[in-house]
């Protein structure tokens, strides 16, 4: 049986969507919309809006709206970048870090419920496969 990349991509996308949908209410209870959560979760790794847009494959204008919302909610703040005083970088607030961590815990719990359907050996193999797929080609 041959499984092509498009089929695997679609299955993976469906799984992620099902997990996100199952956590929508918990995210809302934290004051987050789904895409706001993704932006919030990316701030530590990519502290500039343009970097966030590139990492999440979102239009810069959309990221600007999400950042504005997250600042208004007190989850992130803008700071002048010491390395380049013309730029502002984003920093998680204590409340933002707590909301991110609680949202990640909810997503992990839902994902764990799905993982419980497969054996520990298959989980280890899945982790190995995903790590291999993330490795840059030689």
TrEMBL record:
Q: Which Pfam family, any one of them, does this sequence belong to?
A: MarR_2
What is the superkingdom listed in this entry's lineage? Bacteria
Sorted alphabetically, which InterPro entries does this protein's record hold? HTH_MarR-typ, MarR/SlyA-like, WH-like_DNA-bd_sf, WH_DNA-bd_sf
- Boundaries of every HTH marR-type domain copy: 1-135
Molecular function as annotated in GO: DNA-binding transcription factor activity
Which PROSITE patterns does the record associate with it? HTH_MARR_2
Q: Which GO terms describe its biological process?
A: response to stress
Extract the SMART domains matched here: HTH_MARR
Q: What is this protein called?
A: HTH marR-type domain-containing protein
Name the species this protein comes from: Streptomyces brasiliensis
